[in-house]
Task: structure prediction
Amino acid sequence: MTKYLIHGGNSLHGTVQISGAKNAAVAIIPAALLVDGACRIENVPQISDVTLILQILRELGADVRVINRTTVEVDCSHIRNRQVPYELARKIRASYYLVGALLSRFGWAEVPLPGGCDLGGRPVDQHIKGFVSMGAEVEVRNGLIYARVPSGARLSGGQVYLDIVSVGATMNIMLAATLAEGQTVIENAAKEPHIVDLANFLNSMGADIRGAGTDVIKIRGVGRLKGGSYSIIPDQIEAGTYMAAVAAAGGEVLVKNVIPKHLDCITAKLVEMGVDVEERDDAILLRRTGALGRVNVKTMPYPGFPTDMQPQIAAVLCTAQGTSVLTEGVWDNRYRYVDEFRRMGAHIQVDGKVAVVEGVDHLTGAPVHACDLRAGAAMIIAGLAAQGVTEIDGIYHIERGYETIVEKLADLGADIQVVSVPDEDNQAQVG
Ligand code: UD1
Result:
């Protein structure tokens, strides 16, 4: 077993380079299933969710070539197997994109129900509603999603109003509609940057998608997509995580390869807390020298404050002056990490979707568990700011979404190491 060992107290200084967006990559890579020919995808983050989705495509018969550290070429022209392996699909949320992509290309999909972080109920009813509006028959049984177009028919354009703003349903319906006959309209669509990125990828290969980034998306089905090159946008949440780390630990850091507009919601809160933030064309400079002030944060779909930054901002607020109120507006159960913060001396009370964080003078290092991806990132931030040693287990969650996080933080001056712990005696060794 491996853990992260952090000696807290070092402020952060220097430059950090942000990788490609996880939530765009895990949709764009399956979207290659719609394309006749090779897709060259650049700025791909080296994270385990990407490794898994590439592995699934290989199992389906795609030709996947790793060109260099951040570029892959995926050719799905000769897919032979359409059954998605359970063992791989159950590990990631994004495996649900295979339903939309396979349905669009073959009129048939059989995909295990997705895994991913446990954030409360994660239904897929809105995805299904979209597929059904296009004429597909969909059934969920024995842990599988079965979707097919009745024999003799084609997937055809539909009109779908999402009852809840869903990132996954918006992208999945977009995938299914790309090769369908006629026009599909998604109303009350999600507007996250990765939705625009998926639309841009598909359009660059010949799709006809308009309105991505607004709440009405119109997709006119096309006969085929042809291969090409595409570069994934920078990761909004990875950037936000480093911004939160600087706020918590102090110091001065240039966060490079970002789209500052995507970070406005995070920047606004950090400025309100007293962090100096300077926007450049594709970078953000952060400086925190003084004490942090309290703020209230409510998570919402984009352009609201992202739910995937809620645990990290909570980590910062643990040592802000005064009492802050967090309201989770997307997930039912996103405060499972709070018990771990309490072990470090944080004062947090949770009541349903609201958490009240009473700032303390300092956190104290402790052994803690990363219960999901973003909670794990929040544990790191708390550990960097804490006095003493923090030992984090469950780090496979963190590696699902953060490329070389230990190296990037160590380059900024953090004292963080990966240690291997023999399972038998739980004795930590530097590895
Ligand atoms: C994606 C992100 C996740 C992020 C979330 C919200 C990926 C791989 N994951 O997850 O990190 O936290 O967006 O920004 O991109 N819902 C339904 N029915 C559905 C679909 C969703 O009720 O069919 C509900 C969910 O329970 C949740 C809300 O809608 O309360 C938003 O979920 P959604 O935007 O779909 O999240 P994901 O796409 O799963």
Remarks:
- The two ends are 11 Å apart (CA to CA).
- The longest strand covers residues 35-42.
- Residues 23, 26, 93-94, 121-127, 164, 166-169, 190, 307-308, 330-331 surround uridine-diphosphate-N-acetylglucosamine (CB under 6 Å).
- The longest helix spans residues 236-249.
